[in-house]
Specification:
Blueprint lengths: L3 E6 L4 H11 L3 E6 L8 H9 L3 E5 L3 H12 L4 E5 L18 H13 L2 E4 L2 H11 L28 E5 L4 H6 L2 H7 L7 E5 L6 H8 L4 E5 L3 H10 L2 E4 L8 H8 L3 E4 L5 H5 L4 E2 L5 H12 L4 H13 L2 H15 L5
Parallel strand pairs: 1-2, 1-3, 3-4, 4-5, 6-7, 6-9, 7-8, 9-10, 10-11
Helix pairs in contact: 2-3, 3-4, 7-12, 10-13
Length: 333
Amino acid sequence: MPPKILFVHSSNETFVKLDRELLINSFELCDLYVPRKFPVSFGLYWRSVRKSDVIFCWFASWNSFWVILLAKIFRKPSIMVIGGYDVADLPEANYGHQRGGLKKKISQWAMGLADILIPFSEYSQSEAIKNAGVRADRMKVIYIGVPDLFVSLPATARERIALTVGKVEWANLKRKGLESFVRVAATLQDVKFILVGEWVDDSIEFLRSLAFANVTFTGRVDDDKLLEFYRRASVYVQPSLHEGFGLSVAEAMLAGCIPVITNAGSLPEVVGDCGFYCNASEPLDIAKSIEIALASPSRIRGKCRERILSLFPMQKRRELLEESIYSILPLKK
């Protein structure tokens, strides 16, 4: 019988779903969704932990803390993926548990209880050390796996489109650079700027008040439509102040989009020398980088794709996650 994994998460973001798909093929998986704002009943935590062999949590938060604590009580091994808001300290964007208060304490306690911590980038590991006081020897960096949904570079001609993808909410205007993306469109009015992402709050009205006619806000789109945007766009723009990984950037590169990014967070790990770097607070600098990317030879698109295929394959993450899980399972007598 395969080991029973309790898969604990508080969101259904793409990177979480990818891990679930990887693990369900090799283990008996029990999915425990614990919303951030509304904790699941303690009795459900209790029963779920008791019948599992290994606890696998995404992010250190209030809800995962209780699960990890029960795992300790029942002597069940545990793994926790970290690297986003749980280890971040970004007051200028109102982002990160490590800014202080009870959330900081809870997240640090949760990380302290887990047997193995898995940051999904070198930068996330450095944040955990700096902001949360986690020892390096308690962590094992395993990059997120990026599935190849394109098979090859699109054969169709690229349009003069600058694309970015992200939830439209106040927290992301600065952190993800959505405000900068919209503002820079005013200086490149012969380029289409497309912002794809769910409208979470009324920040969309603020962005609309800044936008010129060459900016399109699509709202949430289905997967097929998103892939179409990746295939059509020439440039993918991510002028972030913070990134734990940058999955959308990697997806765009697989489709042959040339990235224009900042030097923030893990973005240099993902992009390397395949893109163009800019200053998030300087629209003119972002515009200049976009113009350079638009004028770049098409061979760079293949280079972008090959980098993601070589560094972030799904199979590699699967193998390393499985290795980590089996390393903490008690030996059967």
